[in-house]
Design brief:
heterodimer; A: mainly beta; OB fold (Dihydrolipoamide Acetyltransferase, E2P); 2 domains; 2 helices; globular; B: nine-stranded mixed beta sheet; two-stranded antiparallel ribbon; 15 helices; 11 strands
Chain lengths: 137, 420
């Protein structure tokens, strides 16, 4: 019986301050975000794996015109936010908000800089959800 | 894998489009009728549209933009073509290009002889943040959008990687916008058909008229580097690096090769077609190239039996200025990492070695997403038939290419057209 790997449990994991990916047991391939099927081998013998939360920045942007959800979170032209693609030390890459950077000078943000995971809580009560973030080490 | 071949030849014998822009009083159906009528008028020897066998219509999201699903039969009805099969094709901003490919396949298979291919999008009814959200559904709504990504943000992130890898600067990207507005200024179908210098002068005049402090811009680059003239959207992409939100429609008529001369003495033969797919941006091995574009280009070049240097002009998917630079590399016009320098050197201008986006591109002409891929074909139709007016390329171009990307490259189609 294959382990049930799904995005719902990934976000539940973030709520427990765990960064959860998956590993296919026969190929050893690691996935973050977690996958239920190894796209290279089609195999599905997966287990959950907790990632270390360490990685480096491989691409980023500072967004001045955000989505509705980010506007609701308090971001706008005067208060922009950074989003990036982070390569984890285990290898897989994932999209995340990047916190604790000087966004007034985006050109000084360094691709390759080491990052560590942070868990971003938004909303109250039933609507509370945890989002993936990273910040400089 | 050996190159794929079409079962039989297919030609474009008519093409038409609306002006792209903001049309408050028109829905998709009125825009589509207008594009259809212009296509009919372009058919040199005339044609009874009741001979059309089927319709393939590229449309990204009438559902979100107009709260109207099931769009294709409505459009077929509005141009008097029911009960013929009418199929909506959706692959985000590549919907038009993929509809073209489906129309091509339907004729090449022998199933149909005469097919109407269209593209349509009506985007401007929604406020900006809702448009941002609707476009965002072309990415991964589970893992990319919750991180805060927007479409300008995705391409800006690719731009950051390109700058890091190859030493490009924000000014490199601005050159693409300058060139596309130069071309769009010669296209009466363009939404923003003005040179950036003219936009700058108009802003100065407007400030003077309103008694506001006069901007000190002397050159286009002053204007483009200034937050007041060219606000940041997603660093390093500024407003003039981004294609606009647009309404518009475009249609082309495809027929089997043996029928082409019943319609015109100057058909364009659709000799190459390619399409590729990919996963989320963060899952890719490169962020400075769009792998699905390389897959699509390889398939199209092999099918057509031509090389990048044979192509006389290309309409590429410049949804953002960085996208045009990556496209110019992915299509093989320039080596990886040299597309930015080529743009700066004017090699993609109408007078350059590889003219790109003579129409003004998505940047100046507009980007009604489902229509953009067919709008590109309209430009190739005009250029290869020598009817592009002031922006006509010299030297009787015979080979044109279109490159239409969906999302951040989850889809790409490439098509090659030949005038014989």
């Amino acid at each position: 019986m294959a382990t049930d790997i799904n995005s719902y449990d990934f976000y539940l994991g973030l709520g427990q301050h765990k960064l959860l990916g998956s590993r296919e047991l026969s190929s050893g391939h690691l996935f973050l975000p977690p996958r239920m099927l190894d796209p290279e081998t089609q195999a599905t013998d997966m287990e959950w794996v907790e990632f270390s939360g360490k990685g480096k920045l491989v691409a980023f942007t500072v967004i001045y015109v955000g989505s509705s959800a980010m506007l609701a979170a308090g971001y706008d032209r005067k208060n922009p936010y950074c989003v990036g693609i982070v390569e984890t030390e285990e290898g897989p890459k994932i999209s995340a908000q990047i916190l604790d950077l000087d966004l007034s000078k985006p050109e000084t943000i360094q691709i390759g800089m080491p990052l560590e995971v942070v868990y971003i809580e938004r909303g109250e009560g039933e609507a509370k959800k945890t989002f993936l973030g990273f910040k400089p080490v | 894998m050996a190159g794929r071949k079409l079962g039989r030849g297919v030609a474009v014998v008519g093409a038409g489009m609306t002006k792209f822009g903001t049309f408050r009083c028109r829905t998709s159906r009125e825009l589509f009728v207008t594009a259809f009528q212009e296509m009919l008028a372009s058919i040199d020897k005339g044609f009874d549209p009741r001979e059309i066998n089927a319709l393939y219509i590229g449309n990204y999201s009438s559902d979100l933009f107009e709260f109207q699903g099931h769009t294709a039969p409505i459009l077929a009805d509005w141009v008097g073509l029911t009960p013929r099969p009418a199929t909506r094709v959706e692959d985000a901003c590549a919907s038009g290009g993929v509809a073209l490919r489906q129309g091509l396949i339907s004729i090449a298979s022998g199933l149909y002889d005469i097919v109407l291919v269209g593209g349509i999008e009506k985007m401007t009814d929604l406020p900006t943040e809702k448009v941002t959200d609707a476009l965002g559904t072309a990415a991964d709504s589970v893992y990319e959008i919750p991180a805060g990504f927007t479409f300008p943000g995705f391409y800006a992130a690719m731009a950051s990687a390109y700058m890091h890898a190859y030493g490009a600067t924000p000014q490199t990207f601005m050159k693409v916008g300058l060139k596309n507005h130069e071309n769009g200024a010669l296209n009466n179908k363009a939404q923003f058909g003005q040179r950036i210098a003219d936009i700058m002068e108009a802003r100065k005049a407007s400030a003077a008229k309103k008694g506001l402090p006069l901007p000190t811009w002397q050159t286009e680059m002053d204007f483009l580097n200034d937050d007041r003239g060219n606000p940041m959207v997603a660093w390093p992409m500024r407003l003039f690096d981004c294609s606009p939100v647009s309404d518009g429609a475009a249609t082309v008529l495809l027929v089997s090769e043996e029928l082409a001369h019943h319609f015109t003495d100057a058909p364009l033969y659709l000799i190459g077609s390619g399409q590729g797919s990919d996963g989320a941006l963060h899952s890719r091995s490169t962020l400075t190239s769009i792998p699905s574009a390389r897959v699509a280009a390889k398939e199209a070049y092999q099918m057509a039996g031509v090389t990048p240097d044979d192509i006389d002009l290309a309409e590429v998917h410049d949804c953002f200025t960085i996208a045009e630079i990556m496209a110019s590399e992915d299509l093989g016009f320039f080596a990886p990492g040299t597309g930015g320098k080529a743009a700066e050197a004017g090699e993609t201008a109408r007078t350059g070695r590889h003219p790109i986006n003579t129409s003004g591109g998505l940047k100046s002409k507009g980007h009604p997403v489902g229509a953009s891929g067919i709008g590109q074909v309209v430009e190739i139709w005009k250029q290869l038939r020598g009817t592009a007016g002031e922006r006509q390329l010299p030297g009787n171009p015979t080979l044109g290419l279109t490159h239409n990307v969906g999302g951040t490259g989850q889809t790409c189609t490439v098509h090659i057209f030949e005038r014989r």
